[in-house]
Each structure stands twice: as structure tokens, then as C-alpha cells.
Specification:
2 domains; binds pyridoxal-5'-phosphate; 4-stranded antiparallel sheet; globular; alpha/beta; Aspartate Aminotransferase, domain 2
Length: 356
Amino acid sequence: MLNFTIGPVSMDPEIEMIGSREPPYFRGNEFSKIVIETEILVKGILNATDGSRALFLTGSGTLAMEASVTNLFSKKDKLLVVNGGTFGARLCEIAMCHNIPFDELELVDWEPLTQDHLEPFKHTSYTGVLINHHETSTGVLYNLELIEGFCRLNESLLVIDAISSFISDEIDMCALKADALIVSSHKALALSPGLSIVALSPRAIKKAQAQPSVTYYGDFKTALENGLRGQTPFTPAVNIILQLHARLKKITSVGLLSERSMIIEVASDFRERIKNFDFDIGSTSLSNTLTPIKPASVSAYSLYETLLSNYDILVCPSGGSRKHTLLRVGHIGMLTIADNDKLFFALSDLKNKGSL
Ligand SMILES: *Cc1c(COP(=O)(O)O)cnc(C)c1O
């Protein structure tokens, strides 16, 4: 099957094999050395400032989102949360679940973030701002420079969920003065699901250390301390850490830009060729990770079903209110132009038959 979803995606066979190995004993020196090296590689790719740290949490991206909110903020804080879709709503739900006061900057579907959206909020002193870099449910990439400027005004802590933009899109923690940056294993990193990463600035580390713990498993204080000797407080997803280590070593050896350029090449090819079909591209501010497409003449969901059952091609359907209007086509994993050829063969075939 050809996988054009956003994750889990197709893996590099060498990395995939690591997943099937017998896990090594994780309290040993050898594994600790790998964890320490992996932290250095993560910080390098993110251009994290001196004194930053990266933590490895066992759980999907949502665990890292929740842990970032609960370790950095409390009832005494006031947050601004950007909500333009499912993942922005999730950030709001996390704040709500933990009774952390927040205001919501709501964006309608496919609307990029502008300075005008931020204007009404600029006179409130927010202690933190939460944003997804790429709202995966609609395929809108947000302008983080605007957010950086906004946070600078109030000295707000900036928490960025970069789960679906890491690798694919440019992100520089130092330039953005980001305080927490969240990544997970199964999007463009193309690893097994179940591991998430939070990179923390020195300012975020200080704040987390000054707060009483409200979570046991996801506590940053114990994770920070254990990480100093290449350990995690509890048994981690050992094989995914091994996969992450190998994958980051490969990426840094070819260069991040070169890795990204492969994704950009597949995305650009798709976006050029989709113009020959009756689809509207939902957004004007796109990530390289995926293209959101709205079929003009058929239900998005039935097109997803047809591609899967008749052509063995898996694209990403949408949930809820977008089910019949939006499909998302991913460009991450080991996809190539030849895979796009197969997708466009299927789309042309459907068009010729009059069913598209
Ligand atoms: C995939 C994703 C997540 C994490 O979802 P999980 O199901 O917990 O892995 C969070 N934010 C964004 C923007 C995502 O794309």
C-alpha cells in the first residue's frame, strides 16, 4: 500500500529494522551514551540555545503537549492559545482540563495568522502563548515570527507544537526565542509512534523547576535530572530512542536542508500536478508536510475510500465537519516522485471514468 498519510508514515528500511531488535538494557552505560548523543543531535537540529535541554517522553505527541502545559504553567498564569482547528482546540482543552486560565485566538478554517488577529490581545499580559506551528487538521502553517514579536512585548513564555512541521519546515528555537518546542516520533521523523520530545529553553527550565509538580509520570524536573546522565525516570520506548538516534545521525550527515529538500520536491511536484484537477487547495500558507485539498465534485471521504479500495493508495481523510470536504495528502516518509506518479495515475483514471 502507498502511504500518503501524515503518520505513521513509511520508514527508511534501515531504521525500521532497528525497531525489531531485542531492546538493550536501558540503565546501562551504552544506552545512556546514546540518549546523551540524541539530546545533542535534537538540540543541534532545532538550533536550541546554550543551556537548553531536550527531554524524551514515552507517549504520543499529546502527552508532550500536556506535559509542557502542566510543567510550565499553573492557575496563576494567563495563556493565549491560538486555535485554528483540531490541534489548536486540543491545546485549549489541555489548559481547560488543568484549570489554567486562557484566552483563545480563534481562526476560521484555512485562515493564516496575521498581525491583525493579535492586535486585540496585545494589551493583556500573558505569561504564556501556546501555538501549533502547523495546524495539521486544515494544513495551515502559522507565521511564528509574528508570535515571537508578540511574546517579546509581554515576555511571555512561547510553547510551540512543531509536531507536524519538524524536519519539513524551517524552525529555529534560538531565532524564535521559543521556550518549549514539541516534536513527536511518527510524523516527518518517520519512526514508530510512541515517543515525543520536548526541547526547553533555559528560561523554561527555570520556570519548570520553580513550580510544584502536578504530574508524576510526565514531570520535567525528574526528567531533566535523569537526562543529565543519559537516563529517563522510567522505562522509555527504548527501540524508538535507538531509531531516533540513528535517524538523526543520518539527517545530520546529509544535512537537514538536504533532507527537507526531498520533502519539498515531492510536495512541489504534487502541488503543480494537482492543478490539472478539480480541487481547491484549502490554504495559502502551507507546510511542506501536507497539501489540504478540497474536491469540487465528489465527497472527500468517498474519494479516500475509492483510492484505498481500488488503487491501494492511502491518503488522509478528515474527521468531524471536514469529513466530506477535505482530504490531506502527505509528502513525508520515504515518498518519491514515482509515488506521486502512481497517485496521479489513479486520479487521472478516475477523471477519465467521469468519477472525479
Ligand atoms: C499529530 C499531531 C499531534 C499529536 O497527536 P498524537 O495523536 O498524540 O500523536 C499534535 N499536534 C499536531 C499539530 C499534530 O499534527
